[in-house]
TrEMBL record:
Localization: Cytoplasm
Primary localization: cytoplasm
Protein name: Tyrosine recombinase XerC
Stated family: Belongs to the 'phage' integrase family.
Keyword Glycosyltransferase: no
PANTHER family per UniProt: PHAGE INTEGRASE-RELATED, TYROSINE RECOMBINASE XERC
Keyword terms, alphabetized: Cell cycle, Cell division, Chromosome partition, Cytoplasm, DNA integration, DNA recombination, DNA-binding
Domain Core-binding (CB) intervals: 94-196
Molecular-function GO terms, alphabetical: DNA binding
Source species: Clostridium perfringens
Amino acid sequence: MDNLNDIYNNYDNLGVTRNYENYIEHIYIFYNKMNMSIDEIANIYKKNKRIIQMWVEELKLDSFNSDEKMNLNDNSNIQLELNKKVEIKKIEENKLPKRVDDFVSYLKNIKEQSPNTIKNYTYDLTLLFKYLVGRNQNVENYDNVDIRYVDDNFIRNIALSDLYDFLNYVEVDRNNSAYAKARKVATLKSFFKFLNVKMKVIDENPTIELETPKIKKRLPVYLTLDQSKKVLESMNKGKKYYSRDYCIFVLFLNCGMRLSELCNIKLKDIKEDTITIIGKGDKERTVYLNEECIKAINNYLKDRKELNNCNEYLFLSKRKTQITARAVEDLVKKHIENAGFKDKKYTPHKLRHSAATMYLKEGVDIRFIQEILGHENISTTQIYTHVDDVELRKIVNDSPLSK
């Protein structure tokens, strides 16, 4: 999307702050790539179409080449991502049943779950009730079903068979994978247990016998030590954002951070050879830095200082704001492909896998790797105890009976 920089410049030239700043890329894709009308975009953002027309004019979107339109049925990653964002936005704008609101408050105030976890639970439960209510009304489009009036009597009548029907619906009609279905099962179990045990709203929990979809264990995709070194060595030192990108890779490969953890690092979180980060479930942990990490951070901070930027976040975007997860995903993909590794889909999470695998191969105790990665349960860490094909073949070839 080469036009994006120009579009952001058009926004900056306005000299004022608009409430659509965080949606500029989406608006560009909707209008220029997907050829959506002003009315369609207005419906997505629940805005008057004159407001959307003003956005288009201010960003000067009509001046950009739109020959390469996206097909509305395109299954590309960006299309799927946008569909999900729009879908979630629509769902979040719907008023929820009282018991879902109660559950959300419980997750937020008592369980202190992360905003992302709460969003996912809310999304799953909204889908459930839209399906159950819409099915009874014999509607074709469940997205438009009003679920505000779902009461306790309705919930008490939900049976195990209804939940399996729902899981079949999300698999067949919404193309949910086994992983997505498993998450929904976890949501359902948590919600109905809350209603049964905490709220005493239902006498029987319909999820007691609800089975979680069987998920095939997938071995982690990772970079080897040699591949990791090649990626770092192949990065162009003459590029403007070299020190930032290099530092990001070094932290991923040495510290095994999650993407969200890296994006949210603030300058105040760095203390000599440690970084305090907020991990999954809003849990705080300390990440220890080796010499390579400290050197990479200092080099980046030196270049960052020259930009005269006082933003509180460590990693900044081209627009001198907190770097987004999407931007990190893009730069990780770019540098890995530039190093010649295009056969697998490498992501920031794959770099986390790489860090764990390299530590394991160096003989680090799995319990220490668990602490490094911030895993609550060691069973999550044990997936890294795999051996690759090369090592397995070597072991077999070195068998005494083969000599």
